[in-house]
Here is the input.
Amino acid sequence: MSAEVKSVNNHILPHGELDGFIRKLSKKMKVVAPVAKEAGNFAFQEVSGASEIALKYVPTVLPPKKYFMPQREKMLDFDLTGAQPSDKAVIDAPELAVFGAHTCDLAGIQCLNMVFSERPRDYNYLLRKEKIFLIGMECNDYCDENASCALVNSHMPSGGYDLFFTDLGDRFMVHVNTQKAEEIVEEMGLAKASPADLAALDKVRERKRSVFRNEIGVDPRKLPEAFAKGEKSKVWEDLGARCVSCGNCTNVCPTCYCFDMADNVDLNMKTGSRNRTWDSCQFETFASVAGGENFREARSERQRHRYYRKFKYPLDKFYRFFCTGCGRCTRTCMARINLKETLKGLAKETV
Amino acid sequence: MTDVPKTAVRPKVAFFDFACCEGCQLQVANLGESLLDILGAIDVVEFREVMSEKWDKDYDVAIIEGSITDSHAEERIKKIRARSKVLIAYGACAAIGGVNGMKNSFQLDEIRGYVYGKDYKFFDSTKTRPVHQVVKVDYFVNGCPVYPPELLEVLKCALRGLPYTVPDNPVCSECKLNENVCMYERGVACMGPWTKAGCNSWCVNNGNICYGCRGEVRNPAKNAAQDVIGRFNLNPETVRGKFDMYNKCKEGDNGNK
Amino acid sequence: MTEEIKNSNWRLRKGKIIAAKQMTAAEKWFDIRLEDGSLDHEPGQFVQVELYGVGEAPISVCSSPTKRGSFELTVRAAGRMTNAMHKLDVGDYLGIRGPFGRPFPVKVMAGSDLLFVAGGLGIAPLRSLINYVIDNRKDYGKVDILLGCRTPSDMLFGSEIGAWQKRLDVNFLCTVDRGAPDWRGNVGLITTLIPGVTIQPERTFAVVVGPPVMYKFVIAELLKKNVPERQIVLSLERHMKCGMGKCGHCQIDHPKNYYCCKDGPTFTYDEVKASKKL
Here is the structure.
């Protein structure tokens, strides 16, 4: 493809103009971006200018999924007074721009999109998603040693965004992917990328191909076989022996979406709401039924289940891994359960 | 699941304190506007901290603060239980023994001598027990002090005759949803991984560690404790000590709670 | 607010209890009429029942779709919501979502002999199928019903069972784990009834519903009788929280990634035999 054709959708934003960009954008809608917290942690938070944003960051404590499916989400208001109870479906879907999502997190959102648009569709998710303007940010280097994005091929951009930023040193290459993004870029007056800019982008990508290498030394094409054979592998016993069942790994995972529903009554005892909250397959009662049976009682079974939900089941259903290599589960685990090591161990035992 | 007795329309509610600092009763006063809503739904008939009246009939709801630490208290709680349709153990001292449980780390006579001097035998004292180790408890409100939103949840359940289940997941599960930076990453040992959630990680949200005041989860990860202690270079004794601050009475539970 | 949200699968339909009866100490039966039309379910499907302010629980429909105008549920008081549901009576309202799930394969089974095996509360979902088959009796071959429960006083649908017993086109056998002074029937586990039933395995569908612990033993007996694996139909128990194959709670540990609420709850043994637990 020639540079001229490619440049149609590529624009340039000098570093010095990022602040103006964020400020203008935040006048149109709430803007959230990675912000530095204590002890080398980051979190997506509301920002009003570029100085608050961490442009280079290790994946945030929670992925941007928290905007697509909030930790706690009201689905229904009900009223218990009157001859019969009444209810009303509700949705809170504010206009929002997410700035600076890494490719691993964009991949995570793509996974969630598939899950919630599969029939029967979840319109609460889909309507909220429509209101979110997603701006990606390329990683030119690894964030840390826990990432495994090259293994699952999510280190390079592959759609799933409105705008995508790549740092070219003194300026950002801005790829425009949607009509909505086109309008915003035009309004902001971003210059078209020149052939020299595109050459610089090619150079960044070329360098990345040598920096980002399969992190576990196991061909990802062998993983389906490893998981097919590995149901009884001893790695699950090992994980089970160490797991705290705190649910950290699933809460921070960009593709975990299991949830629970609960009713809350207001103090007046007359009105209330029905709410959806994040749940975790790592919790002891997750797969138990009222009769007392628990279908995943052992920690080893629950850890195994988590891995199969990333590397086996979604492959059959959605033709892709539901691990985006972000490394969060490893970073957050207090008991040092390490995704890369687990995969290596499983592969060693099975393929 | 236990069948919880249903309470009357405008229930008679009484507060009682046993061995405690009465700080959890103060949380009721701290409820602010919610307090007015509650007072609209209930009829407080005894509350030593705010009123002098006494009630001589049965209670629909008895809210018990404090742990049982002598035989006089044991008799008194049994009498209250006999007069109460619903009994709520309120605050760490009542629900799990709390800091009073530290007494159980010593020989009883030794600690009595230390506190009361040579005539200690004239002062009645027993091992510290949480309320459920003495009488049947219908609802637990954990915490030191109690977490006001949870207190409201429990009261709503009690007034509607529904059971309330204390979450049996570690505090981490809520802490992560609040996107707090893990205390261990800041280099401080936190009791969150072994402590029951339900407080919305109140302490960590405010920059403090979890002290384990809500009691240990039913099935704590023993092995994981070694990994965590190892990973963060902690002293196992310090961690155990931190945990015993609130959880010493667990030894008296025989796994029935 | 968009139409999609109002009409999504989260929408609650209003159901009015038009009849209710305490069947045993633990089970209560409800007849429910939807305010806005019929449930339009098939045998083996379930509904999500919302008790406003308490919560929701998945419950099998125990009436046949051939019964029109209302549908029936049998609820065991086992958790917070179902205990609260036992306090409801005629005139009370519920929220209903559904019906959900893959029904029993009534069309595939047409023309075949049927062997129904129900344990405990398993009779509830199976009753929707049994009554459907009885109402369409000419479409099926020989029909045997085997029922097992703990004690005679745990037996559900007593009067209806009496009617099944009297029918000439249905063979009915039951057993109890523990007898009672006035019990003159069989005593023993449900598996003890299977060897005595005469079936032509190649033309028989066995439909088995009961507690998880029952499946292993009943299936072993059926396989001994040479019933093909794909003609053994089960209804599995999981906690379906959303009914849409999303919330994750009812997923079965099986290489095929089944969601009990969507791919089931009815499965052939052939489909689910690779599961860690049935």
Remarks:
- Chain A is about 35% helix and 20% strand.
- Residues 59 and 326 of chain A are 7 Å apart (CA to CA).
- Chain A touches chain C through 49 residues (CB under 8 Å).
